[in-house]
Design goal:
- Its EC number is 4.2.1.1.
- Its cofactor is Zn(2+).
- Keywords: Lyase, Metal-binding, Zinc.
- It is an enzyme of class 4 (lyase).
- The chain has 194 residues and is α/β, with parallel strands linked by helices.
- The protein folds into 2 domains: 39 residues; 148 residues, Beta-carbonic Anhydrase, Chain A.
- The chain is 52% helix and 12% strand.
- It has a 4-stranded mixed beta sheet with strand order 1-2-3-4.
- The protein is globular and about 60 Å long.
- It starts with 8 loop residues before the first helix and ends in a 12-residue tail after the last strand.
- The C terminus is likely disordered.
- The structure holds zinc ion (ZN).
- Zinc ion (ZN) binds next to helix 5.
């Protein structure tokens, strides 16, 4: 049976950090939250991965209804013009895709699109020497796949027809040094069937 906890050290730390953040903001500017509470004006939609702290669904299965609606909301309502798709080195989801036959249940369904990408490029991925290189290469290919899928979403193409061009680009976050590497996918031919 799942144990339900009301709180844990991690949760308490988050609440404490939030409280500290809010207190510091108010101390410097007592109207800080008043000034931002009615503005929701982000410039960039960042699509990442849960083990590097952002939503995993989109980076694995970006054409499922939840992910699609999140992107559509960002594009049509928040007026986003830039979407950053960010994979990262040492990604757990990518490692699982490389070891797909040992993955079971919902995780297997979730990982399947990445596994399909691996199957397609298995020859070149398997020719790499280390596991680390294999994981990072598949991470890059998966980012490329997601960029391609986003560019093929119906509302996205509609938006382009109406003259609103949204820039979608892919990056790889190197967890060893915190650097974001631009994969220059905004110039990619997206019709390569990834
Ligand atoms: Zn990850």
């Amino acid at each position: 049976m799942t144990k339900i906890v009301e709180s844990s050290d991690n949760m308490d730390n988050l609440i404490e950090s939030n409280s500290h953040f809010a207190f510091e903001k108010m101390r410097k500017n007592k109207d800080y939250f008043k000034s931002i509470e009615n503005t929701q004006d982000p410039k960039v939609l960042w699509i990442g991965c849960s083990d590097s702290r952002t939503s995993p669904e989109i980076l694995t299965n970006c054409d499922d209804p939840n992910s699609k609606s999140a992107i559509q909301y960002a594009v049509e309502h928040l007026k986003i013009y830039d979407i950053m798709v960010v994979g990262h080195t040492g990604c757990g989801a990518i490692k699982a895709a490389l070891d797909y036959k040992h993955v079971e249940g919902d995780v297997a369904t979730w990982i399947k699109p990445i596994y399909n990408t691996y199957k397609r490029y298995s020859k070149e991925i398997n020719s790499l020497k280390t596991d680390e290189e294999k994981v990072n290469e598949l991470s890059k290919l998966n980012v490329k796949r997601v960029v391609s899928v986003i560019n093929h979403l119906d509302f996205f193409k509609e938006s382009a027809k109406k003259g609103k061009h949204i820039n979608v680009n892919g990056y790889l976050l190197d967890l060893h040094n915190g650097q974001l590497k631009n994969l220059h996918l905004n110039k990619t031919n997206f019709h390569d069937g990834l």
